[in-house]
Specification:
Largest sheet: 8 strands, parallel
Subunit structure: Homotrimer.
Number of helices: 9
Strand order of the largest sheet: 3-2-1-8-7-6-5-4
Organism: Croceitalea marina
Pfam family, one: Aldolase
CATH superfamily: Aldolase class I
Protein name: Bifunctional 4-hydroxy-2-oxoglutarate aldolase/2-dehydro-3-deoxy-phosphogluconate aldolase
Distance between the termini: 28 Å
Shape: globular
Keywords: Carbohydrate metabolism, Lyase
Number of strands: 8
Length: about 210
């Protein structure tokens, strides 16, 4: 699968689910629940214990799901993530070295940027998708103001967004979303598993309806 193929899948699904947990043991069941709920693109962040091992495991178990690495803040993490099998990299910052590592390995980058200067810099250095982050604290009005002069840029909105605000963001022109804490939680029993499955289905429906 080429870098462009992966970008097309992400743009088509319009949702990247962020897995950031404090215990590695929670990750496999959370991945199972997300996939059962229809999630096709997920990232495991570098500040989640055992993230490299879990990326490799998820890729093996779910070959038809895109599995990436999140919180890739520098080239060292980027190299480790790609070696572990990450199919895309997600950053909270704008770092040219991460793009270099990713593109050298035919892997796309969802690059974090917030201000017009950061966004234009991310585009300039070759980011495949602009991750507008952290956007919830800025609001839809801010996004519209940024989108005006940068109308050709496709944005994924990420960072503390409430699920019930998705229609408003869609209406404002957001192309996709990154959701984490509102969707992902440790699984202790079957009801926790079922709730993630149900919520994932609801989110997908809301995004695509």
């Amino acid at each position: 699968m080429t870098r462009n193929d992966i970008v097309q899948i992400i743009n088509s699904h319009k949702l990247v689910v962020v897995i950031r947990l404090n215990k590695q043991e929670y990750i496999p069941k959370v991945v199972d629940a997300l996939v059962a709920g229809g999630i096709k693109v997920l990232e495991i962040t570098s500040n989640t214990p055992g993230f490299l091992e879990e990326i490799a495991k998820a890729r093996t178990k779910y070959p038809n799901v895109l599995v990436g690495a999140g919180t890739v803040i520098n080239s060292e993490i980027a190299n480790r993530a790609v070696t572990a099998g990450a199919q895309f990299l997600v950053t909270p910052n704008t770092n040219a070295k991460v793009v270099e590592v990713a593109h050298k390995n035919n892997v796309p980058v969802l690059m974090g940027a917030l201000t017009p200067t950061e966004i234009c810099r991310a585009v300039e250095i070759g980011a495949d998708i602009i991750k507008l982050f952290p956007i919830a604290s800025m609001g839809v009005k801010y996004f519209k103001a940024v989108k005006g002069p940068l109308s050709e840029v496709k944005f994924f909105a990420v960072g503390g967004m409430a699920i019930d605000t998705i229609p408003e963001w869609k209406g404002a022109g957001v192309e996709g979303f990154g959701l984490g804490g509102n969707l992902v939680k440790p699984i202790h029993n079957q009801s926790d598993f079922d709730s993630i499955v149900s919520l994932a289905k609801d989110v997908i429906k809301t995004i695509h309806e």
